[in-house]
Design goal:
Blueprint lengths: L8 H13 L8 H16 L5 H25 L18 H14 L4 H9 L3 H16 L1
Helix pairs in contact: 2-3, 3-4
Length: 140
């Protein structure tokens, strides 16, 4: 068996860089995230949310989740498989709901409560608890 020669500092960095990008658990393209998130929110909204508003929400959620996944994919090399493709439970995280609620409030959309209840799949009681939790989270 042939002995491998010891790599110099620059050569080992190049080799590590090449192996980093040849990993089989590469992060999926942003358009894949977008199409899954779009399908989810179109199904949940059931044509009760204006299309333009829904498209803006989908774009914001996609940008947020994809940037988090990219950051986590680089930050946690042992968890690359986890952050290679979108997990739909991440779309239902409180932080995403907070993002949507803040966006709707900033846009001063009429009927925020009803739209939020539709998008978050909540009734009045659950939505009130959600608002209490959001207030607690933001003021802790």
């Amino acid at each position: 068996m042939k002995k491998l020669r010891r790599l110099g500092r620059g050569e080992s960095d190049i080799l590590r860089y090449m192996l980093f990008w040849k990993t089989e658990n590469r992060i999926a393209p942003k358009r894949d995230f977008h199409s899954k998130i779009r399908d989810y929110y179109i199904g949940v909204s059931n044509n009760q949310v204006p299309v333009e508003l829904l498209n803006e929400i989908i774009a914001r959620v996609t940008d947020n989740i994809y940037s988090d996944y990219k950051r986590f994919w680089k930050q946690y090399p042992k968890s690359r498989k986890r952050y290679s493709t979108l997990k739909m439970e991440d779309v239902e995280q409180h932080s995403i709901n907070f993002l949507i609620t803040d966006f709707l409030e900033k846009k001063k959309v009429i009927g925020i409560r009803n739209l939020s209840k539709i998008l978050f799949k909540m009734n009045d009681e659950e939505y009130d608890k959600y608002l209490d939790h959001k207030n607690w989270y933001e003021t802790k």
